[in-house]
Fold each of these.
Amino acid sequence: MPKIPAELCIKCKGHKYLCGLSICPILERFKNVTSTVSKIVINNKIEGSTPPSILIGEKNYPKVSLVYNIPPGVIGEEAKDYENPEGWWGRKSLNDIISIRSSLISTILGGLNVRDPYKLYEKEISLAGISEKPVVSETDSSGKIVPKLKFDGILIPRGPSLTVQSIKVSENPKVPRTIQKLIFDDLKAEESVIKLYLDNENYYRIISAFSLGFLGLKRNRKLVPTRWSITAVDQIVGNYLLDNIRTLDTIDNVEYYYGSYLGNHFHIILYPSSHSSTWIEIWHPLSLWTTELIISELSENYWGEYDSLDGGYIAARFSIIEKLYKRRRQAGIIIIREITKDYFAPVGNWHIRETVKRALENKPKTFNTIEESLKYVNTNLEANDKINLLGLKSIKKIIGQRRIDEFLFK
């Protein structure tokens, strides 16, 4: 097999199959090396509380599978920690997260028609996925358990899997009133997502509600693969907030923020400008997708047009636009993500959203010009001696555009 270019792997992150293969060889190798489950003994049934943790797969769409995650023997509030991105941040290491997720059994219901989400409503299976508290559930364990972990670049890792015929929800799910009302309303899905966000509903629960077919006009409701739902909700809310700040004043200075977690370093620069955004990823040798230093660039213009769609960028973009919305300001955005060899396993793009959000809570360092801020970032990169940020195509474009603007409006 010919060598797959690292640049392609960086763009793909294991789920777009840009190389033409039906599986990602990097993830397959990683799963085989890190699978910690060799033997699972369960008597007759699997019982435990889903954290809640339910996702919809995309394989064979529009016939899809539902993955219902259960930590065997774990009942009640303790189950929450098995899927808690906001609570994990800053507290759990990469190894901790892998260990937690490997303790879940992914029970799989296959052959679901995406246009019939009501079948899951009736059995309260999907309701368990939007519950405010863990829900006790059980399923027959007579099938064959596949003792492998499942990873990709957008979703939280999954534990060993088991295909089942049915799942029984043994406890009444506690559905938030905000979502409960929308289940009976006939409101477009995008409008429902925005309403839930403005009502301060838990962000990850909004994603689950969107994925499990609770939102939208009743005649159009359907199950949406969770991977698609994550990026869709980030886009929907991000675009709504962006539309509300386009006419506002810009920030006054060039501001720099920094955040780091799980071997990922985020350098964020906001500068006085109408909206435009640049996403730069610097992948170190022996980090997840590459054995060489790779730099990828993505740009978004004022009108919201991207070079390409990247779920990690959309997650980071959401957190920044949310912060600007709360400040009642707009700005140009540069996000530089440096991924080191310490990020050896993909755990989903939640950590991008959460790290950027927390970075923006810090007091910024200010600069007079974008060039000064980029020089500062360059000296603080782990790969500082191998990279010239000012020489990147996307950065040259930003600096060139600003100089023209300054010349024209003097």
Amino acid sequence: MKRTIVLILEIAVLVVVLRSSFVQFWLADIQDNLSDWMTELATMAEREALSDLQKRIRPFIANLSDYQREYIMDITSSRSKLEHFQRYYCIEKDKNPYVYGATLIYLCSEIRKVQFD
């Protein structure tokens, strides 16, 4: 009988403590940190692939104008931008005001080499 009462009291204290604002704030902070860490882990391979692509194309685009280099570095900064560029300008052959000719052909060939794991 004493064990049951002690167990019920322990559960009640645990519920009261876990419902306190401090513990809720602390648990939310832990959840945010873990979520950020998991997001970083999930996107690590993507960031490495994009960084590798930028390193490969940097010497080739060095002789382009500033706005062209900025544009190319911007499209190679995220997977979604890169996929959008590839779909419209490499696959569908839409006209791009910043990248064209041999630069576009080279960029499309380098984009095809990118492997997102």
Amino acid sequence: MAAACIFCKIVKGDIPSFKLFESEKVFAFLDINPLSRGHALVIPKFHGAKLTDIPDDQLSEILPVVKKLVKATGAENYNVLQNNGRIAHQEVDHVHFHMIPKPNAEEGLSIGWPQQKTDMDKLKELFAEIKSKM
């Protein structure tokens, strides 16, 4: 845990939260600046700024807890969002997954999807490069 991290302080109980779930590895709570009713955060207790900073074994419960939240909120349409880095819209430097119900066009997450034209030869090169590192 990082002493100055707001999410670490929430996990420790130093800052109050609307805790929805807690286990040895995971903590889930309502977002205090929600995009919609039921917007919640699921975080690993292990402190790390980006997804690549978190050991795999500390991530094993994340998606099952997200699923529990979806069922508990009754969300039929929802987004699961995890941002890494400032230009990718990360505000708190502790890995967190948003579960954001999307009840209608106005509430919840609104995103753009700026698709790019694909050059198949370049895509094949990229595929080979990435696959060789997996």
